[in-house]
Design a protein that fits this description.
Length: 305
Amino acid sequence: MSNGAEFDYCFENKTVWRRKVWDAIHHRLSKAGKKPKDAVVLYLAAELDLDRSVAFEHGFRNQNLIAIEKDERVADFLREQKKPVIHSTLEKVVGSWNSELKVDVIMADLCCGITKTSASCCYSMMCRSEFDDAIIMFNLLRGRDPLIEVAKSWASNGSGHRGSVLRRYITEVMLGRSVEETVESAEQTKQYVEELKEKARRFYQAKDSGNYKEALRISQQKIETPAPPLMMVEMESQMKLYSYKSTSGQYFDSIIFKNVLRRCFPDRIKDTQDLMAKDDATARQIAAVLAVRTRRVNLELTRQP
Ligand SMILES: C[S@@+](CC[C@H](N)C(=O)[O-])C[C@H]1O[C@@H](n2cnc3c(N)ncnc32)[C@H](O)[C@@H]1O
């Protein structure tokens, strides 16, 4: 993955995007009954660490915001400010997460596009019990991705939106299906949506003409076609896509979703050959950061009001 530590991330499109992303994370956590103040977050900070103040505004707390930074200079700089930092790559952290501590949010604001590493990193997160039901965000550069021709064939509409490509990859992982089955499911989705539209049309026709009894009857009618699995996956995982243009004219695409793989599709977890490998140095860093965090949390609990 490319080195993005030296780039400027303080420009209007990204500021708007950052805020929207944190809003979406906050919304999904609240919907799940989780309080942001208790949520553990892993994120890629960069030198200016612009996410942190937005996260604070949304109720997240300092000791729970754990930065991951592969650039040593930036990691040291953040550490000097007493911020929890793991100096490693996201991939290694995912492979080495050796704690019982559940992670609630992962913000993978990457500088690269869809690569075997970024896609496998996403899959690895989804397979780990510590990341069950976590809100995952991937931000990917559109372009410069060697796998894009393969990846595009995953996207249902051939779209170049990298979030959409990753969405297709995620749903494929969850459903564990072949391309033929996916096409069949797309047909089923079309039929389901047509039936939904027809039901809505009849409902409003009855309601607008004052026939409320008939409107009620229609609203209770079942749709013949079963809800398509693809749609179920997207609804269950609350997927949402975003995009913005950088100051150098490059597009970045992102996806936010809830990790429901192990809870909803336990039989879809494939063998572990694609999973990120454990790295001992990273495991030691994680343990050290979490030990400091636990001390701070305990201190806070014992503090007099
Ligand atoms: C795009 S910037 C993060 C910007 C920040 N989220 C914001 O909104 O301003 C990514 C940062 O993470 C680092 N980085 C990129 N890829 C990484 C990876 N795979 N693992 C760890 N750090 C990475 C880069 O060095 C850079 O400092």
